[in-house]
Design goal:
seven-stranded mixed sheet, binds S-adenosylmethionine, alpha/beta, Rossmann fold
């Protein structure tokens, strides 16, 4: 499997490798555990579709894949480019006795080593923002889906209401980088988080990206006043490959 390592991709890989052993703790600590509830919400939505084959892209340490393994008779493939994040994920999967259900692999979401029309669902949490090329990543998540397959994307979004937006910006810009830096010892990791959320399409802009990748009925489901959102879309039966 070839990973095309150019600027952003390589720095994202290096950054996540460097925080891999502290990633889970930091995630839950800095979000006051809300990230866990958001992943659960995504899996509740996913479950209604009764998927048996799921691809979890940018799986990291596997939290979303592990949550999705609660669905009956499911098989999940998780991919990531940060080997050390996957290493932490492997240990968790083994400890939980899920190695027959979850397969974690080193692969690039923007160049997936899978055939078209294989998965019932493509899922991702807090991953698409890190893609070097969002359009290519969404195209790939579309390509591997079966007809009527669905995409579920959990990502930070920009709240629009006062004072949520102001509080959100303050927390992301000042508090989170400070605590993140102290605990993760990686100077850039949590400054990057603020910048990457600011620069990333949110709400309607993200729905346009889904449409451009070929997804029908793109929808945004806001979570916690719009701090995060689950975006969904369908690969219609009559969709043609691009
Ligand atoms: C914030 S973490 C999210 C991990 C996990 N999904 C979660 O919910 O905790 C982002 C992950 O995206 C991965 N990533 C970024 N670009 C990628 C790509 N092109 N292909 C695969 N993984 C990628 C990073 O290595 C990192 O593990």
């Amino acid at each position: 499997m070839q990973v095309r390592n150019t600027g952003k991709k390589e720095s994202v890989r290096v950054m996540f490798n460097s925080i891999s052993t502290r990633y889970d703790f930091l995630n839950h600590f800095l979000s006051f555990g809300i990230d866990i509830l958001w992943r659960k919400k995504l899996v509740r939505m996913l479950k209604r579709q009764n998927p048996t084959s799921i691809l979890d892209v940018a799986t990291g340490t596997g939290d979303l894949a592990i949550e999705a393994s609660r669905i009956k008779n499911v098989r999940i493939t998780g991919v990531d480019i940060a080997e050390e994040m996957l290493e932490v994920g492997h240990t968790k999967v083994l400890k939980k006795g899920l190695s027959k259900v979850i397969d974690l692999q080193y692969a690039d979401s923007e160049n997936l080593p899978f055939d078209a029309f294989v998965y019932d669902a493509s899922i991702v949490s807090f991953g698409v923002r890190n893609f070097e090329n969002l359009g290519t990543g969404l195209d790939e998540m579309f390509r591997v889906l079966k007809p009527n397959g669905r995409i579920y994307i959990l990502e930070f979004s920009m709240p629009t209401n006062f004072p949520i937006l102001q509080l959100y910006n303050f927390y992301f810009k000042f508090i989170l980088p400070l605590i993140g830096r102290l605990i993760s010892k990686d100077k850039s990791a949590y400054t990057y988080l603020y910048d990457s959320v600011q620069d990333f399409p949110s709400g309607k802009d993200f729905l346009i990206q889904l449409q451009q990748a070929g997804f029908a009925s793109p929808k945004q489901h806001k979570l916690s006043f719009g701090i995060a959102s689950i975006y969904t879309g369908i690969k219609m039966d009559n969709s043609t490959e691009k």
